[in-house]
Amino acid sequence: MMKRSLSIRLFFHFAIVITLSLSAIGLFTYTYASTEMNDQLADNIAQTMRNTAYQTDLYLQNYDRATYSILSNGSVKHLLDMSSEDSYAYYEYSRQIKRNVFPPVFMLYPQIKFLYVIGENGRVVIDDNQNSAGIPDIDAAQQYKQLLAATPANGESTLLTRSIRSGQNANVITIARRIRGGSSYTPNGVLAMEVNVLELDNIWGELDLGQGGYQYVMDQNGNVIYTSGDEEAQTVMSSSTVDRLMHMEAGSLEQNTDGTKRLFISELSAYSGWRFVASVPLSELQRPIATIRSATLWVGAGTLLAALVVAYRIGASQVEPIRVLMNGMRQTEKGIWNKVEMKERRDEIGVLIRSYNLMVSRLSDMIESVYESELHRQKSEIELQQEALERHRAEFQALQLQINPHFLYNTLETIKCYAVVQDSEEITQMVESMAHMLRYSIQTNLEEITVANELKHVLAYLSIMKHRMDRELEVEVIIAPDLLLEKMVRLTLQPLVENVLQHAFPRGMEPGHFIRIDARRLEDRFLVIVQDNGMGMSNARLEKLRRRLELNRLAGEDTDDVYHRGGIGLMNVHRRIQLVFGETYGLMMESEEGMGTTITMALPADQHSKRI
Question: How far apart are CA 206 and CA 204, in angstroms?
């Protein structure tokens, strides 16, 4: 049952992974390919339309240049300036124009079918490139008025989709521009030429849009002047489609025409103002995409089926050795150390089975020795911890009880002198202060006390020293009230003050001398600072003291009077702080000869979590 269940789960997970992978790859490939192909086809058609518009502009600009020789001709200018009543001059100028002006243009540009000049004076010269006998008789005034309204006043040429000849508007392009005579500063005539639009079929008919695809050329008013299709092409270009195309510069749009979705790609000519439109059914564009979709589905289905078969076989081959190994582990749980018997395998499962058999063979032999070794190790560790604790306690108590006997002897001698000489309250004060100091110092427990307790101990010390030195001794305490309940090690502040009195002011404190006690928190540390402006010490002596502090050595020699004489020395204080809080705390020294000394006591700010 377990084999079957695990096999099904493996097969199920393999199937999910394979299906998701193939689906993601197929979907991405199809989406990307179809999008790229759609964009590429649309870009190709748009590029062809742009090229068609460009070639058309070049073609039409070539005709526009054909008018330059005419508008500057003297005979043409005289024709425009002549009187409308002078028939002889009209005959002469029209003859010169037809003989000398129009023929070179027809020769250079045989595509021109019809060429004429109409003046404001009502005179007109018309010539047909192929059929001189077919020249129509036109109403010059009416034609001039119509052409004048259609052409710009600045003399630039314009394109019209109509003919001067009645019944010839289909497939005709008229290129017209205003011209002026020699004596006029404003245009007083119109020059026009007609070209058969079918002459442009070689340019417009190059695009192959496939089955159902059509190409259109529309003028500025939305009239279709050319189409590559039949009557069906006319129905495709509905009025709504024309309206939407005329309101866009260039680009593409999708339109549903007679139930068929079509893509219209539009390009606007910069010179002629005509719009070149290609219309292609979306189904025609997406035919290659449908082929890709079908191929993707068939290949994906075949690949999925093959992958699922392989996944099932892999799952079944992995489950059997796992089941055998599981049964062996069940026996091991019961205390039966049997090896797993199975065909030799060289894969990871074979390595696992060999390792399991090796483990089983060694585990029964090693378990007793491991138990005994662990018990012995724990016992030894407990003994070492107890021994270290006792050693620290003994060292701490010994350090704390190292009270300088000279101080006690001198104090008792001073009390005796006061008692003999006079009956004074000083004796009471000294005795009370001495009693406080003795009671405070002989307590040997390891409990920390507060900054306020240490300051009270310093006050008792100063009270005694005031009578010994027969002068007032003041210590400036600038500790913030919220720091007075910070924890300290017992008997650490008074030795620092005593060290200052003995070494910073060996001749006593004079006016201007000061001893300042400060405290502050700095990140996770609590700093107590004792500063004086006494003698200070040399760099050599300061470096020697710093090295002693770094070595964590206790001051125990009489020659160490710089640090030790007169009470519990600096090294004693430094070591006791480290015994309580660890090696990262203790004393730091800064001093300059003749400028004074600063001793900083570093303690943890959160002592309940920092104490060792």
Answer: 6
pLDDT at 556: 44
Look at the block and give the residue holding tokens 């243009």. Answer: 105
Question: CA–CA distance from 541 to each of 536, 537, 564, 575 (Å)?
Answer: 10, 6, 14, 20
* Closest residue by Cα to residue 179 from 162, 157, 160: 157
Nearest-10 Cα torsion for 383, 389, 394, 397: -160
- Which SS3 state, helix, strand or coil, does residue 173 take? strand
Mean pLDDT, each 10-residue run in order, the chain (612 residues): 58 76 74 72 77 80 81 87 87 89 85 86 84 66 85 84 67 85 86 78 67 76 72 67 77 74 81 80 70 74 79 69 73 70 70 74 73 82 73 59 55 66 68 71 64 91 83 87 90 91 86 92 93 92 90 50 51 86 90 94 72 46
Q: Which two tokens stand for residue 391?
A: 């050693």
pLDDT in the model for residue 410? 64
Q: How many CA atoms lie within 13 A of 245 on its CB side?
A: 30
Q: Which residues contact 26 (CB under 8 A, 6 or more apart)?
A: 296, 297, 300
Phi then psi for residue 356, to 5 deg, are -65, -45
Identity of the amino acid at 476:
E
Residue with tokens 């006998």: 133
Type of residue at 368: E
Q: What is the DSSP letter of 359?
A: H
Residue 318's pLDDT is 67
Among residues 164, 166, 173, the alpha carbon closest in space to that of 146 is found at: 164
DSSP letter for each residue of 375-393 = HHHHHHHHHHHHHHHHHHH
DSSP string, 398-426: HHHT---HHHHHHHHHHHHHHHHH---HH
In the block, tokens 């529309």 appear at 218
CA 504 to chain centre: 61
Which pLDDT score, from 0 to 100, does residue 404 have? 53
In the block, residue with structure tokens 């404003």: 186
* pLDDT of the residue at 307: 76
- Cβ atoms of 566 and 407 closer than 8 Å: yes
Q: Give per-residue burial for 269-301: e unless 16+ CB within 10 Å, then b.
A: bebbebbbbbbbbeebbbeebeeeeeebeeebe
Residue 110 makes CB contacts below 8 A (sequence gap 6+) with 129
